[in-house]
Amino acid sequence: MRWSHVGLNCTDQKTTEEFYTRYFGFDRARVVNLGDAQIVFLRKGDAYLELFPAGTEPPAGPDGNDGPQAPGRMRHLAFQTDSVDAFLADIGDAADITLGPLDFDDFICGWRTVWLRDPDGVIVEVSQGFQDEADTTKDVTHG
Questions:
Q1: DSSP-derived secondary structure letter, 94
Q2: Is residue 8 a contact partner of residue 120, using CB atoms and an 8 Å limit?
Q3: Minimal CA–CA distance to 111: which of 131, 134, 140, 125?
Q4: DSSP state, 82?
């Protein structure tokens, strides 16, 4: 089994495609023509985003700064970069920051994260310095 993709509902597929290609390095991989609509696949390495035209269903309520917290809803997409500050300088005014940047040096030295909203309201986390934990046998509920 291997990871495949995340499907995103887009108000304007072209705007969403431009956001992920320009700021996150995705490229168009395929367009599926459905007659009166299309599905656009974007690819970066082994990661794909599948862009759908949005329906008319209203959002399911307010989200937290780092994404929805209700069961069954995706909280956020996340990407790693070498420098959060350089990323923010590059994205400039296109960044709709919802939280941060925050430093998590108490957990991992150099871990820094910012959350922003994409053109369709999806929360996107951008981090630097995250590392896996050496001992993953700890019980998260009892430390």
A1: G
A2: yes
A3: 131
A4: S
What does the block give as tokens for 131? 């590392």
The pLDDT value given to residue 132: 80
The 10s digit of each residue's pLDDT in 41-79 is: 999 999 999 998 887 766 666 666 766 666 666 788 999
Token readout for 50 is 């599948």
Question: What single letter denotes the amino acid at residue 62?
Answer: P
Q: 102-136, pLDDT tens digit by residue? A: 998 888 888 999 999 999 989 999 999 988 877 77
Pairing relationship of beta strands 47-53 and 38-44 according to DSSP bridges: antiparallel
Reading the block at residue 78, the tokens are 């996340």
* Helix residue spans in 12-79 (DSSP H): 13-24
Determine contact, residues 68/75, Cβ cutoff 8 Å: yes
Is the CB of residue 46 less than 8 Å from the CB of residue 59?
Answer: no
Closest CA to 49 of 59, 38, 41, 37: 41
State pTM to two decimals: 0.81
Largest Cα span, the chain: 54
